[in-house]
């Protein structure tokens, strides 16, 4: 009987050790992907976490709910002359869940602070709070995309024909949500922050930034 108990204890220890080892291996692989991402640009670097940053973005507050978000990996750099930050967030498991949910987020500064706006494919988003849908007047775009804001005049001023036409042809928007937060342009997706996921998001966000008539919005 004693031998059976001993064998059972040994098996439990081995299972636990295997679980810990698998977790450490997964973490090592994750950070290997982060290092690969950091290595994609000159001067790109890992920086300390900023636990308050996500709280300034309405879409991320919605995504976090009451669980909050962990700033798991945070990097910064410059792309095409525009400073940026990339964050890998993890949302803790909810009731009935066992794993964290990953979200990759790219931030670039707004040249002009101002009202909010959300932009996404219709199957990826729904209006938040007091946001209202703002049609652009482009039938094909309005069938595929949802533009929402508490300030329709601002949204119409942003969604100029050149930007609308470009986004309509842009496959990088699939399953992504773009937000004009008070101080940043932000794009987020529930993915791991690998170079294959983040680089198109970063490039797209800079493209959007370059196609917004900021001087007009500043008046």
Supply database-style keywords.
about 220 residues, alpha+beta, 9-stranded antiparallel beta sheet, 7 helices, about 25% strand, globular
Notes on the protein architecture:
This protein is of the alpha+beta class and 219 residues long. It is 39% helix and 24% strand. It is built from 7 helices and 9 strands; from the N terminus they run αβαβββββαβααββαα. A 9-stranded antiparallel sheet has the order 1-2-3-4-9-8-5-7-6, with helices on both faces.
Would you kindly provide a brief summary of this structure?
39% of the residues lie in helices and 24% in strands. It has helices at residues 2-38, 58-64, 139-144, 152-158, 161-168, 195-210, 214-217; strands at residues 45-46, 70-79, 82-91, 101-109, 117-121, 132-133, 145-149, 177-180, 184-189.
* Rounded Rg: 21 Å
Label the structural class. Answer: alpha+beta
Helix and strand sequence: HEHEEEEEHEHHEEHH
First and last CA, distance? 84 Å
Strands in their spatial order, largest beta sheet: 1-2-3-4-9-8-5-7-6
**How many DSSP E strands?**
9
Helical fraction = 25-40%
Q: Segments where pLDDT lies below 50 for 5+ residues?
A: 16-26
What is the overall pLDDT average? 89
Number of DSSP helices? 7
Beta content comes to: 15-25%
- Which geometry do the CA atoms define? globular
Report the major sheet: 9 strands, antiparallel
């Amino acid at each position: 009987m004693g031998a059976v108990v001993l064998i059972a204890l040994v098996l439990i220890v081995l299972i636990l050790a295997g679980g810990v080892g698998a977790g450490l291996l997964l973490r090592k692989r994750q950070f290997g992907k982060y290092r690969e991402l950091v290595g994609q640009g000159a001067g790109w670097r890992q920086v300390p976490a900023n636990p308050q940053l996500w709280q300034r973005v309405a879409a991320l507050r919605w995504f976090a709910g009451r669980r909050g978000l962990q700033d798991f990996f945070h990097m910064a750099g410059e792309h095409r002359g525009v400073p940026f930050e990339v964050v890998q967030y993890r949302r803790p498991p909810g009731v009935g869940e066992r794993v964290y949910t990953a979200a990759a987020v790219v931030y670039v500064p707004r040249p002009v602070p101002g009202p909010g706006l959300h932009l996404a494919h219709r199957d990826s988003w729904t209006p938040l709070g007091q946001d209202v849908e703002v049609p652009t007047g482009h039938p094909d775009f309005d069938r595929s995309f949802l533009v929402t804001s508490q300030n329709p005049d601002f949204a119409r001023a942003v969604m100029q024909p050149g930007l609308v036409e470009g986004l309509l042809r842009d496959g990088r928007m699939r399953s992504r949500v773009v937000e004009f937060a008070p101080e940043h342009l932000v794009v987020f997706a529930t993915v791991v922050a690998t170079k294959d996921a983040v680089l198109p998001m970063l490039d797209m966000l800079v493209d959007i930034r370059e196609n917004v008539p900021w001087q007009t919005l500043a008046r």
